[in-house]
Each structure stands twice: as structure tokens, then as C-alpha cells.
Amino acid sequence: MTERDSPVTADELHAYVDGMLPADRKGAVEAWLASHPEDAARVAEWRALAEVVRDRYGAVAEEPVPARFDLAKLARSQASWRMIAAAAVLAATIGGVVGWVGRAASTPAPSSVEIITAEALSAHRLYIAEVRHPIEVLAAEQHLIPWLSKRVGTNLRIPDLKEYSLKLLGGRLLPGPIGPAAMFMYESPNGERFTIYCSKSKKLRMALRYQSGGDVAAMHWVESEIGYVVSGPDDRDRLAKIAQTAYEQMENPPARGATYPLVSKKGS
Amino acid sequence: MSGFRASVEAAIPALRRYARALTRNAELADDLVQDTLVRALRSEHLFHGGDVRSWLYTILTNLNRNRLRSLARRPMHTSIEDNDAPDASGPEAGGRDIERALASLVDDQRIALLLVVLEGLTYREVAEVQGVPIGTVMSRLARARTQIKSYLDGARPSLRRVK
């Protein structure tokens, strides 16, 4: 069978129009078109279509690039996102999502739980480093829980973590990914700080999960559309125990009256 | 400026063109491009070579898909332009026809067609952007061309006279 006679496929016609036909098939396709007027008409139509599309939109690429696309400026404006992105990437890696790097970076945005955890970790890092103002409202203030409960939109309970020698310092209100977020901070006698972050989540429910963020780590869960993130030093066993205790106390109403919220006014 | 940044910058005009054709809305298109650039800059450390341009098209395509997903959950807003009385003739008529014809395509077909005919990507590059085998790209392209032809045959005849 000579090249001239070998049948031409529809895919080859498309490739011919799109300039993607291997050179050694060009002669065969052109000969085919010369003797198949219907295919020749289709090819002409596809070419005309491509031209109309380019006529319609081609000029956009000739416009001067608007100032909003200044890369140096964009890079600066997204600096605060870096920690969040790092945490999200880390989560993806932990989850075993290892693929083509470009694909990993461009997969659909991180899940709402990942975003909450990333926000919590970044707030944790920021505020545990504060010496004088780590919190906004002291634990001793009675309006701490009602205030933050109201802003987050759920009845928050503050767990008693005394069995881990953690004392509640107080809390603060933060902007969360989809609404106000509350953060409570605890401190150990040797100055280690743990935080519990609570914010509305798009997910209804998710079991406890661990996520390491380098020097700090988080255990998070979602219950009744509220995401909780317990963050602290990266010690998995210890953090898991603390988070488990926090989880049990926050999700179950107090069994015998007023065990918690345990906000001792004596400054225990 | 790093080689990466320079490649990203060089791609901006083409990204704007692709986004405009994809969304058929100038404002939305530029928002998408900006999100794409921010996402790319944020992930610069993840980029270990390869074709920056294809990667940017991939990000933009995925961001647009996310946008459509979230739109699907919200009430539809109709752009004022869509309600304009269609021009019966004039130099804009062909442009409007092609916009509507593109709008009549399934997303994946529109993406394949635009990446090939407008952006000049190879079939292999389009396959990477869409995360599908080349054969799938070919069939999307073929269906897009068939659909546009039948749309235009059924629509006003102005476009058919163009060449």
C-alpha cells in the first residue's frame, strides 16, 4: 500500500488542521482531501472556526498587561499565605498525595478542614511567641466563653487540661476561613503553650487526625460543623492524649454539674 | 528576576486571552489570571523544571473548575450583557456568534478546543493540562468541532459567511 492510498483517519484530519500531523503523513492527507470533497469541506470549516476564535480573542494578548499583574507585588501580597500553603502541602504529603509536582500544586484548593488547620497552626505560631499579649481576654473574665461562643456560633466548652499541667491563660477572637474563630491558650509550668482553635467548618464531622507542621503539630477534628484544632509542640503521643481529653470534654456535656468549663477564678 | 518569574510573566498575555475565552467575561477572566499567578508564585518552590506555561494553564483551568463548582451551589447571576438585544449584523455579529457557540460546549470540550486553536498547545500538552490520555483530548476536540458546527448551522447565518 503506498502512502498515497493509505486511508486517512478523522484524527489525522484534526491533526492536519492543528499543525500536529507528522510530516510523513502530510502528502497522504492532502492527496486524500483532493479526492474527498466532504472531508476537504470539513477541514476548511475547522480552519475557519479557528480563525474566528483567534479573531475574537487574539487581541486580548496584545493589550498592555494591567498593573494588577505585577509579579513582585503579587508575591508580596501573598506572603502571609505561605504558612497556610506550607501546611496544606504538608497535609497533602502526609496524605500520600505524591504526584507530579505541578499537579500537586494545582489540584483543587485544600479542603476546608485543611484550611482551618493551617489557619490554626499559623495563629498558634504567631501567638505562642507573644510574651506580653498572647491572649485578648484572660481566663478569669467571665464573659470569655459566652463572648467567643456567640461569635463562633456554638456553645463552646473549655476543657480542663490540669492533668497535663496545662493552665488556661485565656482566649481571643480571630478571623477564620468561613467566619469568626476562637482560640484558647494553655501554658505549662515550663512555658510550653498549647492552643485550641474552634471555627465553623463546611464539613459536618471528621474523626481526630494528627498533622505535623515542623516544630509544632496539630490534632484536629470536626463535630457538628465546628472544626477544632489542638496545637502544641510536635510530640505526637502527648498531643494525642491532650486532644483526646479535650475532645471528650468538649463534645460531652459535663457529667456531674460543673466539672468544666473549669476556669478557676483563683488562678489555679 | 528568576527564570521562573520571567517565564510566568511572559505567559500573562496568553493566560488573559485563554481566561477571557474560557469565561467570556473580562473581569472574571482577569480575576482568574490573578489567582493563577498568586497560586503559581506560592508554589514556586514546588516547581522543579518542566514547562511553566502548561503548568499555568493547568492551574487556571482547575481554578475555573473550582469556581464553576462553587457557582453551581449559588443562585445564578446573569450578566447584563447577556440580556442585551443581540446585534443582527455588523462586525460584532460573528464575535457574538462564536461566544455563544463556545458557551454551548461542555466545559472539557471548550477547554480542549481553546487550548489547541487559540493557545496553540500540542495535543500532548492539552492531555497533561486536562489530566487525560491524548485519545480523550482528540475526541473532545472532534466533538467540540461537531457541536459548534451544528450550533452555528442552527443559529443565525452570519458566521457561515465568514470565509
Structure description:
The complex is a heterodimer of chains A (268) and B (163). Helix content of chain A is 41%, strand content 20%. By secondary structure, chain A is α+β, with helices and mostly antiparallel strands. Chain A has two domains: 10-61, no CATH class; 111-251, MucB/RseB, C-terminal domain (Phosphorylase Kinase, domain 1, 2-Layer Sandwich), CATH 3.30.200. In chain A, strands 1-2-3-4-7-6-5 form a seven-stranded antiparallel sheet, with helices on both faces. In chain A, a hairpin with a 2-residue loop joins β2 and β3. In chain A, α1 (10-17) packs across α3 (37-57) and α5 packs across α7. The longest helix of chain A has 21 residues, at 37-57. Chain A is elongated, with a radius of gyration of 30 Å. Chain A starts with 9 loop residues before the first helix and ends in a 17-residue tail after the last helix. By secondary structure, chain B is mostly helical. Chain B has two domains: 1-84, Rna Polymerase Sigma Factor, Chain: A (Orthogonal Bundle); 87-157, Arc Repressor Mutant, subunit A, CATH 1.10.10.10. Helices cover 72% and strands 0% of the residues of chain B. Chain B contains eight helices and no strands. Chain B has helices at 3-23, 26-42, 52-72, 80-83, 91-103, 107-118, 123-130, 134-154. In chain B, α1 runs parallel beside α3 (52-72), α1 crosses α6 (107-118) and α5 (91-103) crosses α8. Chain B is globular, with a radius of gyration of 17 Å. Chain B starts with a helix and ends in a 9-residue tail after the last helix. At the A-B interface, α1, α3, α4, α5 and α6 of A face α1, α2, α3, α5 and α6 of B.
